Structures are given as C-alpha cells and as structure tokens.
C-alpha cells in the first residue's frame, strides 16, 4: 500500500506547503496526473455581525486561496508534462442558509437566482 499512497501534512493556505506536496508526488510517482482540491474547514458560523474576522480570514484562506494554490502548483507540472486533470470541489453549504458556515460558503459561489 505504501508504494501507492503518500501522506504529507499540508496547510493548503500556505504556498510552500502546497508546492512541497506536489513536488513529493512528482518525485515519488514521476508526474502528476490528477489534482483534487478538496480541503475545507467548518468555516465561520453565525450571522455577519457575530463572525470573528480572524476566523473569516482563515476560512477564506483555506477555501479560496488553497484552491488557487493547488490549481497553480498542479498546472505548472501538468503544462510541462503535457496534461492532467484538476478537480475542485466546494461545499453544499453555499446552496442555502440551513447549514452552519454558510456565510463564508456564499463567498465562494454566486447567489442562486
């Protein structure tokens, strides 16, 4: 099993961590065929007046900046090797106000019509 999977503790909001994770995969497996950006946090919970700014900033750093850094790191490798797939997922919390953390989830997705 260890020949087929690797683990590296990574903070997706940190450029150096994301670049190191991609480099590890490339070094170990010889390339990068797929990047799956799927990190998330519970996010800021509560109404706009109650949300702590530091918690909001951390949520945006993971949910938005982390995806950007993952796409960029993967694209740099995939462009030189001739292709690959980048998959980004987002929370269903952006679909409605019934789940905790929807205030920041909505920052990642346009308001539904």
Give the SSE layout.
Layout: H1 15-29, E1 34-37, H2 53-81, E2 85-88, H3 102-105
Description:
The protein is mainly alpha-helical and 113 residues long. It has a two-stranded parallel sheet with strand order 1-2. Helix 2 links the parallel strand 1 and strand 2. The model has no long low-confidence stretch (mean pLDDT 84).
In short:
With 113 residues, the protein is mostly helical. The chain is 42% helix and 7% strand.
Question: Which tags fit this structure?
Answer:
113 residues; elongated; 2 strands; mainly alpha
Number of strands: 2
Q: What is the radius of gyration computed over CA atoms, rounded to a whole number of angstroms?
A: 16 Å
Largest sheet: 2 strands, parallel
- What is the CA–CA distance across the termini? 46 Å
* Beta-strand residue percentage: 5-15%
**What letter string, H or E per element, gives the SSE order?**
HEHEH
Average pLDDT over all residues: 84
User: Strands across the major sheet, in which order?
Assistant: 1-2
Overall shape: it is elongated
Helix fraction, binned, reads 40-55%
By helix and strand content, what is the structural category?
mainly alpha
- The number of helical segments is 3
Low-confidence stretches: none
